[in-house]
Amino acid sequence: MEEAGFKILLDQGCLKIWDQRRRLLAKVPCGANRLYVLKLDNAKPVCLVAQGTSTAWQWHTRFGHLNFRGLRQLAQEEMVRGLPQIEHVDQVCDSCLVGKQRRLAFPTEAKYRAAHKLELVHGNLCGPVTPTTPSGNKLFFLLVDDLSRYMWLILLSTKDQAFTVFTVFHAHAKAEAGRKPGTLHTDRSGEFMARTFIEHCVQEGVQ
User: Fold this and answer.
1) Residue 107 binned pLDDT confidence (cut-offs 50, 70, 90)
2) Where is the Integrase catalytic domain (predicted)?
3) Would you state the pLDDT for residue 126?
4) Is 119 buried (19+), middle (13-18) or exposed (0-12) by CB count in 10 A?
């Protein structure tokens, strides 16, 4: 246990054991014979073991979680030898609910769309990509206007250039569109949460 990173301490007639995260696992007092006896209960694995007190639930498991209406039909038509009559056909199996649940369909369109150009701009810093460009760039800063879907793609060599690139984009976009970006939607990664980046957005009125 000591080689595996556990901490073991003998102090004032008591044995204490901590795990790798220094969580106390055991505290054993010293016995009259100077032995520290720790009584443990062995865990009994239940993997691949079908447990159930009801015969119907056992047959439900044997047939790969077939629904109870199907089991009753098998019994009524005598299609399976030894299968008893299934009465509780309206019960629900928790495993069946988890295994057969479906994911909701993705929405065909967003709940919110910008009404004006540069009202909402999506930004993301992607990379590193291989191989690098001849000029040594291995990242790219992608900006997408939510209304027009117009894209700006700027190549970068390091992440710390994202702030400088955004300031240049902000000035050019405001000059071309006649309005400044309203909201910048990002994944809130480190380059976008830097103090200089946030201060610039606050100064320019960009949310």
Assistant:
1) confident
2) 103-207
3) 87
4) middle
What percent of the chain is predicted at pLDDT more than 70? 92
Instruction: In whole angstroms, give the CA distance from residue 31 to residue 73.
Output: 64
Q: What share of the chain is helix, strand, coil (3-state, %, to 5)?
A: 25, 20, 55
Task: Report how far Cα 176 is from the mean position of its chain's Cα atoms.
Answer: 40
What is residue 18's three-state secondary structure? strand
- What values do phi and psi take at 73, rounded to 5? -65, -40
Minimum mean pLDDT range among 11-25, 39-53, 91-105, 140-154: 39-53
The separation between CA 20 and the C-alpha centre of its own chain, rounded to angstroms, equals 25
Which domains does the chain possess? 1-39 (no CATH), 55-100 (no CATH), 120-204 (3.30.420.10)
Q: Which two tokens stand for residue 81?
A: 């030898």
44-53: long-range contacts (C-beta < 8 A, 24 or more apart)?
A: none
39: phi then psi, degrees, rounded to nearest 5? -90, 125
Q: Which pTM does this prediction carry?
A: 0.46
